[in-house]
Design a protein that fits this description.
heterodimer; A: alpha/beta; Rossmann fold; 2 domains; 6-stranded mixed sheet; 24 strands; B: mainly alpha; 2% strand; ABC_transp_permease (chain B)
Chain lengths: 504, 362
């Protein structure tokens, strides 16, 4: 390995966020012309690491060298000037501009301030041809392109600058099968020209096909550097990714089968969303926690959204025997469902407003007489819930944005405890919550179930699903590929199933 | 653009709770003390003190006081007279009523450009000979219904027709003016002798203050109650602050949005009654550019143009600042063009100051 000078070296990178060490000493070494795969579970630090590389975050400690020189990209523009391009999952193209305008956005070829349109068009055509997509016309509006074509445009943009290193964050997530093949062809051509690629994906089969070497991250640390991508056994990679250093403390579960005589709260029959979900059937009983395990994009969040009435679907969703139908979220909330959505800040909270107002949001009807709010009762109930869930700091008048992630999530749960709920849908309930606060949340969730509420839980973290749920559904590509007691599964097997589709 | 995966935001504005003054002053939040959930008294005095800096509208009141001082120094006799102060309130009443409605719409995350035109249409409709033949009460009901109806149309277009509020209300602005011109044949319509009761609203005084000022006060009070003491008001903040969260909490965001515009229209209808009282006419030229004054008052009052934050009291203070400035310029015999320049500056300064105060508490 020492024969070639590494293109990129990251050593001892540390990045702290309030309450969390997102990166805790990460090493990464990328050679020119290689496809280097970055593996790790959600929360392992992959996204943070590439943001450090892209200049979006500044590391607190550690050294980054590029081509032998130490660099400190302080902004995305800096990183681009250094020759590092990042293609994010959510493509950052401007839909209203043309392909050529997007490719040269920010560095338009210009003469005396006038954009050289024909020149940009010509150069874009050249880049697209080099990527094997001469059929994409530089004058087309990007909004009209397919996701695959947009990705090609993103790559053309990366190439339009003098790029030495391209970072791709789950580039295949939005692509169909044959489009992935084309992506790989492009990657091979790029690497043949000496460009290095950092490739992030959860799909082991892709890594085997395109990758040269693999670095594995776990809990913000590097646990393996430069493994051969083609030959390292799956078992070894999965063990490296799992077996966390921090043991989660899960509350005790009731005995298996103890829910069987409880009434069914939710029944889902043949649920389908075109292009996303097909033939999903399951049920949740009172007092039971059912976990959905699967990759991002596997359809787990869509199941939750459809059940909650926030997404159109075909098939039947019955809450205590009553069809949810098309009444939207207003109806599902009236019937007795509650949702803690995935993006807490953008989907659940009124950040500027007080804890009390956030708690009462879904239950304002309780305090209203002819529209008049009984604010005293509202405040009393909020205070009681803040104490019951031990929200800290315990001041219900505080703006909710000053609370930590875990306490914000408690506020969201409190919202649904205010009203009697039959079913709670929890989408990534511990995202952005630090390890210590998680145990508390787990206890709260179990307590809710014990009080007779059915809980449907989605999490990207397999240990969380296995540790918390009574029953687990494994989702892959929009279908349920396994359904069974959580105690009969282990992390290794679930990861195998969701990453490789290997049946049991 | 880059979707952050969990983790706290690294932006400088990240809520650093440990350093906040309230936190320091509060009781030690012993995380492992089992008795932490003990009775929780009102916030300790120090915490309350630290909130004193956040007394709402302190800056606006100070600005208004400053203007009063300017008035007392430059034109003491004219400014401080009872008739001048009542005049200021009468002048503010019409736009004031509109401002109440505009505050709701803007807190709810929208904008209503059609307010002036809708008011003009309502005044014209209510002063047509046909309507006037039914007497003053029907004229008032007519003005209010026309306003509310136009607002409802705005609401339907925006909530269910998915038009951008700016566009929908811009269309209404143009169309309502046109309709008002057609109905009145571009003539100013006088309130007739038999319907003097309407004009009496501005001439009859109770305790020296014209009735229309009381109407203004009632609308402000009703608006304040609706916004702060009812579920409707609470939902308005939710819908404007985070429509997705409101929807997922089971609130019918679209229906609520529709009612917000209807409410704004209703206020325009009431404003039409006031302008008929003050000018004794209905005209398609009434209320020209009122939308800008109303929006400016709301913004100066601290309401976020993006929604979710704001208050009626702030809006009214903002409006009074504008009105007092106008008054001072007139009393001092200054150029009306300079007055516009001053108003423009005030908008910018007010927003800059508010942005600073928004940032500091976190």
């Amino acid at each position: 390995m020492s024969a070639v000078t590494p293109l990129l070296q990251m050593k001892g990178i540390v990045k702290r966020f309030p309450g969390v060490r997102a990166l805790d000493g990460v090493d990464l070494e990328v050679l020119p012309g290689e496809v280097h795969c970055l593996l790790g579970q959600n929360g392992a630090g992959k996204s943070t690491l590439i943001k450090v590389l892209a200049g979006a975050h500044r590391p607190d400690e550690g050294v980054v060298t590029l081509g032998g020189e130490e660099v400190r990209p302080a902004s995305p523009i800096d990183a681009i000037r250094l020759g590092i391009s990042t293609i994010y999952q959510e493509l950052d193209l401007v839909d209203g501009l043309t392909v050529a305008q997007n490719v040269f956005l920010g560095h338009e070829p210009s003469r005396l301030g006038f954009v050289g349109r024909s020149e940009a068009g010509r150069a874009t055509r050249g880049l697209l041809t080099r990527l094997g997509h001469g059929e994409i016309r530089p004058g087309t509006e990007v909004g009209r392109l397919s996701p695959a074509a947009k990705q090609v445009v993103s790559m053309a943009r990366a190439l339009s600058r003098d790029t030495r290193l391209i970072v791709m964050d789950e580039p295949s997530a939005a692509l169909a099968h044959d489009e992935v093949a084309n992506l790989f062809r492009i990657i091979r051509e790029l690497t043949a020209q000496g460009v290095a690629v950092i490739y992030i994906s959860h799909r082991l089969e892709e890594i085997r096909e395109i990758g040269d070497r693999v670095t594995v991250l776990k809990d913000g640390r590097t646990v393996a550097v430069g493994l051969p991508a083609k030959t390292t056994p799956t078992g070894e990679i999965v063990s490296l990714m799992t077996g966390r250093s921090v043991e989660h403390v899960f509350p005790p579960r009731p005995d298996p089968g103890s829910h069987e005589d409880r009434p069914e709260v939710l029944r889902v029959e043949d649920l389908a969303v075109p292009g996303v979900l097909a033939g999903v059937s399951f049920s949740v009983r009172a007092g039971e926690i059912v976990g959905l395990a699967g990759l991002v994009g596997s359809g787990r969040s869509e199941i939750i959204e459809a059940v909650y009435g926030a997404r159109r679907f075909t098939g039947n969703v019955l809450l205590e025997g009553r069809p949810v139908g098309r009444g939207g979220t207003g109806r599902t909330v009236r019937l007795g469902m509650g949702l803690a959505p995935e993006e807490r800040k953008s989907q659940a909270l009124l950040l500027d407003q007080s804890v009390t107002r956030n708690i009462s949001l879904a239950g304002l009807g309780r305090y209203s007489r002819l529209g008049w709010l009984d604010r005293r009762r509202e405040a009393a109930d909020a205070r009681a819930l803040v104490e019951r869930l031990d929200v800290r700091p315990g001041d219900p008048d505080r703006p909710v944005k000053t609370l930590s992630g875990g306490n914000q999530q408690k506020v969201v749960l409190a919202r649904w405890l205010l009203n009697e709920r039959r079913l709670l849908l929890l989408d990534e309930p511990t995202r952005g919550v630090d390890v210590g606060a998680r145990a508390e949340l787990y206890a709260v969730i179990r307590e809710l179930a014990d009080s007779g509420i059915g809980v449907l839980l989605v999490s990207s973290e397999v240990p969380e699903v296995l540790g918390l749920a009574d029953r687990v559904l494994v989702i892959r590509e929009g279908t349920v590929i396994h359904q069974g007691d959580a105690r009969d599964l282990d992390e290794h097997r679930v990861l195998d199933m969701i990453m490789e589709g290997g049946a049991l | 653009m880059t979707e952050s995966q969990g983790g706290a935001p690294a932006s400088p504005a990240s809520p650093a709770s440990p350093a906040s003054p309230v936190d320091v002053a509060g009781p030690p939040a012993g995380p492992d003390a089992p008795g932490a959930a003990a009775p929780r008294p009102a916030p300790p005095p120090a915490a309350r003190l630290s909130r004193l800096g956040e007394v709402p509208h302190l800056g606006l009141v100070a600005a208004l006081a400053l203007l009063a001082v300017v008035g007392l120094v430059t034109v003491p006799d004219a400014f401080a007279s009872a008739s001048n102060l009542v005049g200021i309130l009468s002048l503010a009443a019409t736009i004031g009523v509109i401002t109440v409605g505009a505050t709701f719409v803007i807190i709810g995350g929208g904008i209503d450009l059609s307010v002036g035109a809708v008011m003009a249409l309502a005044s014209v409709w209510a002063t047509t000979l046909a309507t006037q033949s039914y007497g003053p009460l029907v004229m008032i009901v007519c003005a209010v219904l026309v306003g509310a109806g136009a607002g409802l149309v705005n609401g339907l277009l925006i909530a269910y027709g998915r038009l951008v509020p700016f566009i929908a209300t811009l269309a209404m602005l143009v169309a309502a003016r046109g309709l008002a011109q057609r109905m009145s044949d571009r003539r100013t319509q006088l309130v007739q002798q038999g319907n003097q009761a309407i004009v009496d609203l501005s001439t009859t005084r109770v305790f020296g203050v014209p009735v229309l000022v009381y109407i203004f006060a009632v609308v402000v009070a009703a608006g304040w109650i609706l916004l702060n003491r009812t579920t409707f008001g609470r939902r308005t903040y939710a819908v404007g602050g985070n429509p997705e969260a409101a929807r997922l909490a089971g609130i019918d965001v679209r229906r609520h949005t529709m009612w917000l515009y209807a409410l704004s229209g209703l206020c325009c209808g009431i404003a039409a009654v006031l302008i008929m009282a003050r000018t004794t006419t209905g005209s398609s030229t009434h209320g020209d550019l009122y939308e800008l004054d109303a929006i400016a008052a709301v913004i100066i009052g601290g309401t976020l143009l993006t929604g979710g934050r704001g208050s009626i009291v702030g809006s009214i203070l903002g409006l009074l600042i504008f009105t007092v400035i106008t008054n001072l310029f007139i009393l001092n015999g200054l150029n009306t063009s300079d007055q516009l320049i001053a108003k423009g500056l005030i908008i910018v300064v007010a927003v800059l100051l508010q942005r600073r105060s928004l940032r500091s508490p976190t």
